[in-house]
Write a structure and sequence with these properties.
The protein has 319 residues and is α+β, with helices and mostly antiparallel strands. It has ten helices and seven strands.
């Protein structure tokens, strides 16, 4: 075992005890090895005794470390500015410190100070903007749901989204000595629109289509995909949750819902979207197992099976 140059607190107390009893440095070294199994050097023991004689303590001297360039006021400025704008960069904070406190520091100093204050870089979460006029109706709607112990057992949540049929891989393997292979990227990828609904008792079929949706086309989707689901799963009553898109609440759509006994649960303006399809489309489209295309009257029929979706989906049709 190599000699120990840095002495533990136990070894230091042993050295002090043997020195007070009259042992010489050579004898202390031998007793530490024979009795405690600790190999050390006479130089390490001598250096510790000299330092103890100077400081009067067996502990290490306090380390100075890196000199602090920012004081308490500077740290307060950083914290206040970050509370005002949580997207500030270290370069911007450095300029603000120079303007408000007349201090010149590096970007690394600002980065360490911000980290010391507890600020960490995090991913931004989705948050829908709400105008001031709609905040009170939304609050009242939420409180009514809480007071009535709303369980949403009979609610069908629906939404639609647009998805680009493309897949990009940011990293790929390459062999040393060979040129890097370029990946082709479509400038204007083909896009489709997806509509679907979920509820506590299951999910509707998924409608995937192209073109622009208007009120009549939206009613056709509800007739094909929503009303069969209501008849099969919710014969005793239901409530339809949808956003306040103009084609969802147009006069013709409201009349169609009344005639087909689709009960729309009206929500305040700017109520949060559930984004059902948008959240899962990244896993839907790369997971096609088999498909074939039949071009008939400019209509593309794709029969596909979807994997990795949190609710079961049967074969569906893109029209």
């Amino acid at each position: 075992m190599p000699p120990v140059s840095r002495l533990s607190l136990f070894v230091r107390h042993r050295i002090v005890n043997m020195k007070q009893r009259g042992y010489k440095i050579k004898e202390i070294k031998e007793k530490l090895y024979l009795e405690d199994g600790i190999p050390t050097t006479r130089w390490a023991i001598s250096r510790f005794l000299k330092r103890r004689e100077q400081t009067g303590s067996s502990f290490d001297r306090p380390k100075t470390g890196r000199r602090q360039k920012l004081n308490f006021r500077h740290m307060e400025i950083i914290d206040e500015e970050m509370l005002k704008n949580d997207e500030l960069t270290a370069h911007e904070l450095r300029r603000i410190l120079q303007q408000k406190a007349d201090i010149e520091v590096s970007v690394d100093v600002v980065t360490r100070a911000r980290r010391k204050l507890g600020w960490t870089l995090q991913g931004s979460k989705y948050c829908q903007m709400v105008r001031e006029a709609n905040k009170q109706p939304r609050l009242k709607f939420s409180l009514d749901c809480i007071c009535s112990n709303e369980s949403f057992n009979d609610v069908i949540f629906t939404d639609e989204s647009t998805v680009k049929i493309q897949q990009h891989i940011s990293k790929s393997w390459g062999k040393k000595g060979r040129p890097r292979k370029h990946k082709a990227v479509v400038k204007h990828p083909f896009s489709v629109h997806v509509w679907a609904g979920i509820s506590r008792k299951g999910a509707t079929k998924i409608a995937i289509f192209t073109g622009r949706m208007n009120s009549l086309f939206y009613q056709m989707i509800l007739e094909r995909y929503l009303t069969p689901f209501i008849s099969a799963v919710y014969p005793g009553g239901h409530r339809l949750w949808q956003d306040n898109d103009p084609k969802h609440v147009s006069k013709s759509t409201v009349e169609w819902m009344t005639q087909n006994r689709v009960k729309h649960w009206q929500t305040p303006a700017e109520s949060p979207d559930i984004l059902l399809t948008q959240k899962r489309c990244a896993t839907i489209f790369p997971s096609f197992v088999n498909s074939f295309t039949d071009k008939t009257n400019n209509i593309y029929w794709h029969y596909c099976r979807v994997k990795h979706v949190h609710f079961q989906t049967p074969y569906f049709i893109i029209v």
